Amino acid sequence: MDSVPSAIKDKPTFKFRQFIEQYGVYLTLVILLIISALITPNMFEKETLAVMFRQCAQLGIIAIGQTLVMLVAGLDLSVGGVIVMTSMVVAEVSNGRNEMIPVAILIALIIGMLIGLANGLLITKRKVPPLVATLVMLFLVQGVQQAFTRGVPSGFVPEALGLVNNSWGFLSIPLLLWLILNGLFLIILRRTSYGRRIYAVGSNPEAARLNGIPVNFIKISVYVLGSGLAVISGVILTGYVGYVDRFIATGLDLDSIAAAVVGGTSFFGGKGQLMGTIAGVLIIQILSTMVVLIGLDIETQFIIKGLVILAAVSLYSLAHKDR
């Protein structure tokens, strides 16, 4: 007599919260693709796809770094300043000379990673909250830029740097680079001890420390990596624009956070997957492209993004309720 209730009890049941946690972002992406196909079918033309995927790469490379930082319960608002700094350094050092591009990029990379190091040290050694530390660093970087250029950017972007945005159909060098970096960091996070330590530090830093994990080193390293990735994105953006623009990174810092959050990365650390961030980048960029094609203003775009982030956070909270 007891076997029937037991069989019923053991029967697999559909768990809504678990489904949302694992597949919600991908379901959202599919629904958004269907809606965009109905509302803006011209978004799937080759030229539009080429532009959208290039923008996905520019945002996505930054979002990789943002995901790493958020996995250790951090946040990086200084990436926009790093991108603008990259543009200015590349133009100033090279001054339009193609042969100086490698040197200019190397110098920008060193400066960018030093900014990430400063962020990490402020957070781990001085115990400054990540939001405050990276915001302060953003203001410092912007102040140095203003003092150095007196508000008028100097130098010229080498013509050859524009080749980094070469494309074949909807495929482009930035897109291929983004895919390669995604593959690299997916392996790092899933297959290496360093990746496992990142999750351990984000989940419970004290337990990680007791298990011999160098918590401060892990935290500092992800900020250095995040800034380095921002430099790479800055080089791509500079080559695409072809001149120094102080507003070249406007919105990218918040969009990178949005992509990670929409993809399921927790603000509290230890939870998130890079595959989810990739889907989050696609969602953010599809929304942006749809808004442009429909002809809505930039304010509406911000409202839509805000609503999407709110929905993502709400679903995440629902999936983790009572856990």
From TrEMBL:
InterPro entries in the record: ABC_transp_permease
Record's keyword terms, sorted: Cell inner membrane, Cell membrane, Membrane, Transmembrane, Transmembrane helix, Transport
Keyword Protease attached: no
Chief location of this protein within or outside the cell: membrane
GO CC list: plasma membrane
GO molecular function annotation: transmembrane transporter activity
Subcellular localization: Cell membrane
Protein's membrane topology: Multi-pass membrane protein
Residue intervals passing through the bilayer: 23-44, 56-89, 101-123, 130-148, 168-189, 220-241, 275-296, 302-319
PANTHER family found in the cross-reference section: ABC TRANSPORTER PERMEASE PROTEIN YPHD-RELATED-RELATED (PTHR32196), AUTOINDUCER 2 IMPORT SYSTEM PERMEASE PROTEIN LSRD (PTHR32196:SF71)
Protein name: Uncharacterized protein
Record organism: marine metagenome
Taxonomy of the source species: unclassified sequences, metagenomes, ecological metagenomes
